[in-house]
Amino acid sequence: MRLYSLSVLYKGDPKVHLLKAAYDVSTFNFFQRSSVQEFMTFTSQLIAERSALGSRASVKEQEYLCHVYVRNDGLAGVVIADNEYPQRVCFTLLDKVLDEFSRQVSKMDWPSGSPATISYSALDGYLSKYQVRTP
């Protein structure tokens, strides 16, 4: 059971844009890592774009399950995990991350923010903490 990506996005008008993300691509071949990360960023944006405000969904994409939660205020979170990772845990993680993000990052920064301008460093820690280690 693995988590590969945890993203926070803003679903504004007309597009969705990435605010902050963390990735764990360590299980992939070194030469595949950047394209896998690009795929995850693109897929996260696409799924958030196609989801309605106030909705939660799980979408299968290739061998991954993408869990998305779009809040009514436009803040969205996407977790990309393997098929075995428990869905309930993913949505608990998304709730926690989006609540914390909205408390730490001003709502005025969401529409114009980008990974370079948003200072929120907890995603890597959450991705690591929620990773299920197999013995």
TrEMBL record:
GO terms, biological process: endoplasmic reticulum to Golgi vesicle-mediated transport; protein transport
Keywords (A to Z) from UniProt: Lipoprotein, Membrane, Methylation, Palmitate, Prenylation, Protein transport, Transport
Family matches, as InterPro entries: Longin-like_dom_sf, Longin_dom
Location relative to the cell: Endomembrane system
Gene3D superfamilies from the UniProt entry: Longin domain (3.30.450.50)
Domain Longin: start-end pairs: 8-127
GO MF, any single term: SNAP receptor activity
Topological relation to the membrane, as annotated: Lipid-anchor
GO cellular component entries: Golgi apparatus
The keyword Nuclease is annotated on this UniProt entry: no
Entries under PANTHER family matching the protein: SYNAPTOBREVIN HOMOLOG YKT6
Family, as annotated: Belongs to the synaptobrevin family.
Protein name: YKT6B protein
Source organism of this protein record: Eulacestoma nigropectus
